[in-house]
């Protein structure tokens, strides 16, 4: 946000409308995805039976968020357009070809992730950046989203015990761009 404000104020590279549009996009783009990803992380951790372990080993909160990003990515697919002709797997793709990249499938690739259908907070990999995009399409809010999810999980773990899932809606269909539970109802005790 500071860079956008400076670009508009000091360098006059953005109009007032462009500045406001970009700021609104940054603020609201991450709210729904971050809350749904945090809900997915809680559900994944509870379902895997790892809640108390994580409460006892808070140093695993970051890896647990990474694993949830891999196991249940809220960003389920992305669209990309080839900027030049290229060959892949013996097939020619001309410039302008549109691609739907399935992050749900990529996150469960058995060649990349051993036992990919198991939620494992001890998994030693940081390929959780995939749902945040890469290159020029990398999510600007990634550091803030990670911080919010880690701190939200840390606070929840510190206060709740005996957590169980009463109801979890799947959220949008897997063919939609964004997923994750819109509703997660829990039972719990207080620490």
Arrangement of strands in the largest sheet: 1-4
Order of helices and strands: HHHHEEEEHHEE
Q: What can be said about the biggest beta sheet?
A: 2 strands, antiparallel
Low-pLDDT residue spans: none
Strand segment tally: 6
What is the CATH topology classification name?
A: Cytochrome p450
Draw up the topology in text.
Elements: H1 2-9, H2 16-47, H3 51-56, H4 61-71, E1 77-81, E2 86-88, E3 91-93, E4 98-102, H5 103-106, H6 142-159, E5 160-168, E6 184-190
Antiparallel strand pairs: 1-4, 2-3, 5-6
Concise synopsis of the structure shown:
The chain has helices at residues 2-9, 16-47, 51-56, 61-71, 103-106, 142-159, and strands spanning 77-81, 86-88, 91-93, 98-102, 160-168, 184-190. The protein is an alpha+beta fold and 191 residues long. Helix 2 (16-47) packs across helix 4 (61-71) and helix 2 packs parallel to helix 6 (142-159).
């Amino acid at each position: 946000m500071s860079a956008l404000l400076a670009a508009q104020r000091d360098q006059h590279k953005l109009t007032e409308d462009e500045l406001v549009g970009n700021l609104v996009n940054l603020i609201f783009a991450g709210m729904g995805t971050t809350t749904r990803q945090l809900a997915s992380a809680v559900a994944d951790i509870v379902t895997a039976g790892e809640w108390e372990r994580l409460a006892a080993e808070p140093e695993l909160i970051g890896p647990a968020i990474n694993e949830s990003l891999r196991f249940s990515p809220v960003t389920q697919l992305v669209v990309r357009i080839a900027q030049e002709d290229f060959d892949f797997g013996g097939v020619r793709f001309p410039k302008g070809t549109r691609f739907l990249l399935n992050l749900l499938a990529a996150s469960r690739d058995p060649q990349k992730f051993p036992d990919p259908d198991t939620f494992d907070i001890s998994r030693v990999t940081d390929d959780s950046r995939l749902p945040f995009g890469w290159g020029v399409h990398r999510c600007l809010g990634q550091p803030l989203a990670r911080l919010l999810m880690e701190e939200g999980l840390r606070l929840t773990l510190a206060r709740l015990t005996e957590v169980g899932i009463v109801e979890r809606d799947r959220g949008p269909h897997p063919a939609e761009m964004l997923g994750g539970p819109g509703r997660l109802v829990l039972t719990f005790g207080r620490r």
